[in-house]
Every structure is written in structure tokens, then in C-alpha cells.
């Protein structure tokens, strides 16, 4: 059986990284399209673009809140390169003037997904600069595709991972504390899902057997989050950027990102995707909040009683939802049946479910989570 492992070429993390480490991006090119939104631009984007010039990179913002439609039109018309050259104020037809282009994704999930899509369309490198640790999407070559109203559509796979992931822990520290907690929930699901894939000899998101490396990373992710996450949140509340905080940032972004992509996904994310993909049931909660409940649902369906208690206690202490009600869900029996059928059918979307898990196990788990 083939096993494989995918990752970015370079990961950098630390306080002030957006000021001191931008030179690392120079190897990707000298013209950067910075995909972001107006809020993040005002917060960090403007000064980042000005700092890029110091290391010899000309940057220009692309706002997902106002320019996404134009981007889609240019994609359809096949005129994307010329349009990007226009944005950057350079001539697209002269290689010398245009320089070497790359894309920077700056912000949260939406900006990062558009940045990855844009880089693929332009066939250039992408650097990811997340401004929160609310999910583990930064390092992966997977984008989650939602429609205009936020309903989950599918996973989209790119040929390569982002070339560079650059994390300024001072910027993550400034983001709302609840985003860090949501990222912890996403990170806690990583090991539980990777283990389900591993134990059944199933495939990861790359479509091969997971490596021992991936399982080791997922185990480390769990260990760090159990050891440090409560302390990290306390430190964040007290305004202290500590070792525990840095460790949780790395666990949420790097360990969890490499762990889920290479270890594989299972019931926790299947629950998220099926629930949020159903217009009648979807809840206005974040990825991490829904995954927190999905994670407990998985442990319940796997009948891992002691572990269920451990994860429940931790998620509860972190102020994350630990029941269907906490997500704002009151499900009729026929809705539960629909969800269970949807979850069982989700295998073809890339989520592995334990071979011995039955519809009855899932129904019992939903009952427990009520
Ligand atoms: Zn996730």
C-alpha cells in the first residue's frame, strides 16, 4: 500500500513575524497580490504591504469583500493574468516588467480559500499569513467550498500545499480569544479522526495510507492541547504571550493542519459538513464550534466512554458547545435519521467512518448528545 505525506515547504511562527520575516517571502517572487478583506487590511494589511517594499516585494491588495465577483468574471473570461497585471500597475505582456508574481493570503478562512484558488488559476505560488488560529486550514492544499449563503458544497483539492505559512503570534494574540478556542476544538478532533482512519487501514485526504509521521503529529497535537490550552486561554485573558500560548498556536495551525490532511478526516467533520450542508438544519455557528460537537458525537459512536468524559470536560472548560442544544439544534427524530443517512453517505466526500460503526451506533450517539 502506498503511504504519503504533504506539507508546506516552510513554516515560520513568532511574535513580530509580519515585521521581521517578510524577507522569507522574497524567494517566491517580487510582485505579490495580497488577498484579504477590508477589516484585516486596515488592521495589518496596509502596514504589511508597506513593509513588503523594504524586502523588494511590490504588493497590492485584492479585497474579497468587494472584488470577488470581478475575480470570478475574469476567471470565466480567461483574462485573469491581464487583470492582475492591471491591479499591480504593471504590464502583463512583458515578462521583465511584470516580474515574478505570487499570491499572499492574509486573514481568515475566506481570504485563504480565495488566495489558494487564485494562485492555482494563475499557476503561481501562494504564501498563507493567517490572522487567527480558529481553524487548521492554513497549511493544507484543501479548500472547503461553500455556496453564496454559506452551505457546504465540497472539498476542493489543489496540486500543492501553500509554499510558505507565516504566522505572527502577536497578530493571533490580538484576535478574539473565542477564535483560539474554536481552533482548539478543530485541533482536538485531529487525533480522534486520524486514529479512526489508522485503525481501519483507510485513506487520508491525500488518498493514500497515512504515514507514521502523520499519526505522530496528530498524537502530539492532542498532547499539547490537553496540556496547554486552558493555560493559553488564561494567559491570553491576562495579556501575556507565553510559551503555552505559542504552543497552542502551533498545535492549532501546524500540528492540526498536517495531522488532518495527512492523517485523514472522519465523523467529526462528516457531522459538520452534513449539518452545515443542509439549508434546513444548518446553524450560524463557526467551524470549530460545530466540530466540537462532532468530535463528541464521534467518541460516543465509537463507545469510548472514558475519553468522551475527558474531551467533554476540556471542551466545556474552554466554553465550547458540548451538546446539540448548545449549537442551537433541537432535532425531530426524522431529522436525526436524515443526518445519520447523510453522515453514512459522506464517505465518498473523503470522510472515513469506522468500518464497524452502524446506523444504530450513530442514532445512539445523537441521543447521548441531546
Ligand atoms: Zn476542521
UniProtKB/TrEMBL annotation:
InterPro entries found in the cross-reference section: G1PDH, Glycerol_DH
Domain of life of the source: Bacteria
Pfam families, sorted: Fe-ADH_2
Record key words, sorted: Cytoplasm, Lipid biosynthesis, Lipid metabolism, Metal-binding, NAD, NADP, Oxidoreductase, Phospholipid biosynthesis, Phospholipid metabolism
Protein name in the entry: Glycerol dehydrogenase
Amino acid at each position: 500500500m502506498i503511504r504519503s505525506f504533504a506539507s508546506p515547504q516552510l513554516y515560520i511562527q513568532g511574535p513580530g513575524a509580519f515585521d521581521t520575516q517578510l524577507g522569507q517571502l522574497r524567494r517566491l517572487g517580487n510582485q505579490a497580490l495580497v488577498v484579504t478583506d477590508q477589516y484585516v487590511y486596515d488592521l495589518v494589511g496596509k502596514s504589511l504591504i508597506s513593509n513588503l517594499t523594504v524586502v523588494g516585494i511590490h504588493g497590492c491588495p485584492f479585497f474579497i469583500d468587494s472584488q470577488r465577483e470581478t475575480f470570478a468574471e475574469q476567471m470565466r473570461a480567461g483574462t485573469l493574468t491581464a487583470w492582475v497585471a492591471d491591479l499591480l500597475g504593471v504590464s502583463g505582456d512583458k515578462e521583465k516588467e511584470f516580474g515574478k508574481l505570487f499570491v499572499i493570503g492574509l486573514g481568515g478562512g475566506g481570504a485563504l480559500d480565495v488566495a489558494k484558488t487564485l494562485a492555482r488559476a494563475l499557476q503561481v505560488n501562494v504564501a498563507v499569513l493567517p490572522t487567527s488560529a480558529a481553524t487548521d486550514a492554513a497549511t493544507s492544499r484543501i479548500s472547503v467550498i461553500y455556496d453564496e449563503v454559506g452551505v457546504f458544497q465540497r472539498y476542493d483539492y489543489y496540486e500543492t500545499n501553500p509554499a510558505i505559512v507565516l504566522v505572527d503570534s502577536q497578530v493571533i494574540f490580538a484576535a478574539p480569544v473565542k477564535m483560539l478556542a474554536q481552533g482548539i476544538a478543530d485541533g482536538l478532533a485531529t487525533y480522534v479522526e486520524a486514529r479512526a482512519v489508522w485503525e481501519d487501514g483507510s485513506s487520508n485526504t491525500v488518498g493514500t495510507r497515512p504515514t507514521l509521521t502523520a499519526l505522530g503529529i496528530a498524537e502530539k497535537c492532542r498532547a499539547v492541547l490537553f496540556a496547554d490550552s486552558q493555560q493559553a486561554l488564561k494567559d491570553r485573558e491576562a495579556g501575556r504571550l507565553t510559551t503555552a500560548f505559542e504552543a497552542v498556536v502551533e498545535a492549532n495551525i501546524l500540528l492540526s493542519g498536517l495531522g488532518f490532511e495527512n492523517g485523514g478526516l472522519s465523523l467529526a467533520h462528516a457531522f459538520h459538513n452534513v449539518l452545515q450542508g443542509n439549508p434546513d438544519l444548518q446553524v450560524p455557528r463557526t467551524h470549530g464550534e460545530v466540530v466540537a460537537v462532532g468530535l463528541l458525537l464521534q467518541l460516543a459512536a465509537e463507545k469510548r466512554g472514558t475519553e468522551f468524559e475527558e474531551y467533554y470536560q476540556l471542551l466545556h472548560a474552554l466554553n465550547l458547545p458540548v451538546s446539540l442544544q448548545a449549537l442551537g439544534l433541537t432535532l425531530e427524530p426524522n431529522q436525526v435519521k436524515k443526518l445519520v443517512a447523510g453522515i453514512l453517505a459522506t464517505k465518498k466526500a473523503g470522510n472515513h467512518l469506522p468500518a464497524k460503526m452502524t446506523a444504530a451506533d450513530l442514532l445512539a450517539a445523537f441521543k447521548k448528545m441531546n
